[in-house]
Structure formats: C-alpha cells, structure tokens
Specification:
Blueprint: E1 2-6, H1 18-25, E2 31-38, E3 44-46, H2 67-70, H3 91-99, E4 104-109, H4 116-130, E5 136-140, H5 144-152, E6 157-162, H6 169-175, E7 180-184, H7 187-198, E8 203-208, H8 211-219, E9 224-227, H9 230-237
Parallel strand pairs: 1-2, 1-9, 2-4, 4-5, 5-6, 6-7, 7-8, 8-9
Antiparallel strand pairs: 2-3
Helix pairs in contact: 3-4, 4-5
C-alpha cells in the first residue's frame, strides 16, 4: 500500500509549496498529492483554493493574476515565519524536480469556470514535455475532465474523486474513463474498498489522519492512502 503526502508535508510545512514537497520526500513515501489551478496567462500552477487569500499574503482569484504576478506573493510566512519567501510553484517546476526522484505525482485538477479543454490540454502538455506521463495520476471532482485527459493522453492514469461512495463505483468509473477511485475515508466508504479492488479498480483513500485508520485501509487492500502526516504514517506502516 502506497503512502501519499497530501499537498506535500501539509502538517509541518506550507501546503502545495516546494518546501512541502522537499520535506515529504525525506520520508519513506511513494507519492505526493497536490492541486492545479490556472493563471490569467494560462499557466498551470500548484494551488488548492480558487483564491490566494488563505495561504498567501495576497488577495484575489488565481485566475486574475499572471504567473509573474502570482510569484510576487509569499506562500510561506502565513504558515510560519521560517518559511518566508516560499512561492506558488508552477506545475512544470514540480514535474522537473520529481523526475529526478522515484515519486508518483497525484495531481488534482480543480474545476475552472471556462475553457475546460484548454486547461486540461495545458496540464497535459507540461506532463508530456517533461516526460512524466508514466508517473502522474490525474484526479478530479469535476469528472468530465477525465474524458478530456484520456482523449489527449490515454496513457496517463486517471481517478475520479468523491467524498462519498459512488453507486456501482467500478461501472461508473469505467463510464467516465477513470482508471481508479479516490475517496474520502469513512466507516461507510470502507465497506466498498475491498469490493472495488476485487473488481479491478484501484482505490486510494484520503483523509487518513491516524495510524489506526491507515492500518484499516491496508487490511482492506487499498492501493494507497493520502495523508496530512506522511512522517508518522510512513514511519509506522513501513517499519
């Protein structure tokens, strides 16, 4: 079972920054999960929210700024003064760094309000340009993006994101061209993990906060867990 660091080392470093990714790699993790938004000049950047208010010293929508304008904001010191100077990374920065590691990148595409196909294409272009199609898994809550990914790059693995169990999950995943299911961990959801896995659909579970929850997932044969505390979880599961 793979251990995947949620937004990097989110518990100890500012989420979705290079500092978070560098930190997570030091643990015995198999992958890193992060989110992509789109800038005013159509560049994919690593950021969770549609606005920059929560994690930076700026204010406004990601889509309202060019890449150069976004780079002027500090994405570290709100978390802790020791991270002053961290910036919102460009997607290509993370890809270039990760290519020299053994990590798999779990990339969540955030829904954009327009130009859906262009957004997906811009993300695919950067993955292909850096030669990472075999080490990226693209997931999204906006499931129509998955067909666009497969249209443009059928070799890239995809996964649907959901907070609750999906009716006839494996059949639905096949219908929307998702290779796997990424689901929020809960007692209700856990009833489906083994079934979906037996039906040939990889299951990765997020919102894993404790070692106990991680061990439950391992017992149920999930493919991977996505956690805010990769140091603790990797240490306990990979002794």
């Amino acid at each position: 079972m793979h251990v995947i660091a949620h937004r990097g080392n989110k518990k100890y470093t500012p989420e979705n920054t290079m500092a978070a990714f560098y930190s997570a790699e030091k643990y015995n993790v198999d992958g890193i999960e992060f989110d992509l938004q789109w800038t005013k000049d159509d560049v994919p950047v690593v950021h969770h929210d549609p606005t920059i208010d929560r994690t930076t010293d700026g204010s406004g929508k990601v889509r309202a700024f060019t890449l150069q304008e976004l780079k002027q904001f500090d994405a570290g010191r709100k978390f802790d003064e020791s991270f002053r100077g961290e910036k919102i990374p460009r997607f290509s920065e993370v890809l270039t760094w990760a290519k020299e590691t053994a990590l798999t990148l779990h990339v969540e595409l955030k829904e954009q309000f327009s130009q859906h196909e262009d957004f997906v294409q811009s993300c695919i272009n950067e993955i292909k340009h850096i030669g990472m199609t075999d080490r990226v898994v693209i997931s999204t809550f906006y499931h129509p993006y998955l067909a666009l990914v497969k249209k443009q790059a059928p070799e890239i693995e995809t996964a649907l994101l959901t907070k609750t169990p999906v009716f006839r999950g494996t059949a639905y995943a096949e219908k929307i061209q998702a290779d796997g299911i990424h689901i929020r961990h809960s007692f209700q959801a856990a009833r489906y993990y083994r079934r979906w896995n037996k039906q040939g659909t990889p299951v990765r579970v997020y919102n894993i906060q404790t070692v106990k929850a991680a061990k439950v997932c391992r017992k149920l044969n999930v493919s991977g867990i996505i956690t805010n505390d990769p140091r603790l979880i990797a240490q306990e599961l990979k002794k």
